[in-house]
Design a protein that fits this description.
Elements lengths: L3 H8 L13 H15 L6 E5 L15 E4 L5 H11 L4 E7 H7 L1 H10 L4 E6 L34 H8 L3 E6 L3 H13 L4 E6 L3 H7 L9 H12 E3 L8 E6 L3 H9 L5 E7 L3 E7 L3 H9 L4 E6 L5 E8 L5 H14 L1
Parallel strand pairs: 1-2, 1-3, 3-4, 4-6, 5-6, 7-12
Antiparallel strand pairs: 5-12, 8-10, 8-11, 9-10
């Protein structure tokens, strides 16, 4: 088992971190360097490209290899040029949800359409985090940001399915809670011939404190958000253990918890959920019966099934189709023959 010192000494530049305390960028960097180490890739044949935003700091300047730090929203365009010029490069692009799905959204869908051999890791913290926490195309409906103080009136992109529909031949979605799965997926994406895309739900205590209305000490937020990702997601094709429901409080989750704990044959605790908010998770062997009893409690406004509105994670696409740089070289060959 290789320790963190091994990865830091081999792949990370020694410097103060640019990440805010608790940022998910460090987790993603950790997964990336573990993936390339497991694959035995030569650092001199890897190009890491980034745009502008918190996600750009993952490779640049942290990764001790060749990096290309580009303009806002244009990372995929720069990476396309680099990969076309030198197809032998393992080219990995790091973008944020605003950088990649908002400002650079057009580059994203056309790179997927072309099926160019890039690996794009899109870090989704659901806001333009670095510039103050403005609303982004991935901000959930109803959530508050500095530019939507009364709630987001828009519905977000399902960016994973958008890129899949645009033609990407490898598509996956994970969170910073799912580090083993994310590392494995980065390895698969790099080895895959064609356009590979991984969306990563990432914690941002600085901005998500407002977005999800999280109260409490700042240092408690990073683990709470990771637990929230676990509570709010389900992994595709993985059996989900049932036996629990969520009681949505009318006002105080603490009062709801007190009333639920007075019931027989249940276990209860307060949890954070990305969609339902701060709710009481009720574990029971008789969820159907318990639902009716919960709705009779004066402090409960609604009861949600354990799978209701959970975000699906996993690998959504893995197929083979013609790759852009191969097709381009064939066209060049034909043109020269003529």
């Amino acid at each position: 088992m290789k320790n963190l010192k091994y990865y830091r000494d081999r792949y990370v530049r020694r410097q103060p971190s640019a990440f805010c305390p608790g940022c998910g960028g460090g987790i993603i960097l950790n997964c990336f360097v573990r993936a390339i180490d497991d694959l035995g890739l030569d650092k001199d044949k890897i190009l890491a490209v980034s745009g502008i935003g918190c996600s750009a700091w993952i490779p640049s300047p942290n990764f001790n290899g060749d990096t290309l730090h580009t303009t806002h929203g244009r990372a995929i365009a720069f990476a396309t040029g680099a990969k076309t010029f030198n197809p032998e490069l393992t080219t990995v692009v790091f973008v944020g949800d605003g950088d990649g799905a908002g400002i650079g959204g057009n580059h994203l869908i056309h790179a997927a359409r072309r099926n160019i051999d890039l690996t794009v890791i899109l870090v989704n913290n659901m806001s333009y985090a670095m510039t103050g926490g403005q609303i982004a195309p991935t901000t959930l409906h109803g959530e508050t940001t500095v530019t939507s103080p009364y709630g987001n009136p828009e519905s977000p992109f399902d960016i994973t399915q958008l890129v899949r529909a645009a033609g990407a031949s490898y598509v996956a979605k994970w969170s910073t809670y799912h580090v083993v799965e994310l590392t494995r997926s980065i390895k698969e994406a790099i080895e895959h011939k064609g356009f590979s895309f991984i969306e990563v739900l990432s914690q941002c205590p600085t901005q998500q404190r407002r977005i999800f209305n999280l109260r409490g000490p700042v240092d408690s937020l990073p683990p709470r958000i990771l637990d929230m990702f676990s509570e709010s997601t389900v992994v595709k094709d993985r059996p989900e253990k049932g036996g629990y429901v969520y009681a949505v409080p009318k006002t105080s989750s603490e009062e709801t918890l007190k009333q639920v704990k007075a019931m027989d044959d249940v276990e209860a605790r307060i949890v954070d959920h990305m969609i339902h908010g701060r709710v009481v998770r009720v574990d029971t062997k008789l969820p159907d019966m318990v639902c009716g009893k919960l709705l009779e409690l004066g402090s409960v406004s609604d009861v949600k099934d354990h799978l209701e509105e959970k975000i699906e994670l996993g690998v959504f696409e893995k197929k083979t189709r013609p790759e852009f740089t191969d097709a381009l070289r064939e066209i060049i060959r034909k043109a020269r023959c003529d």
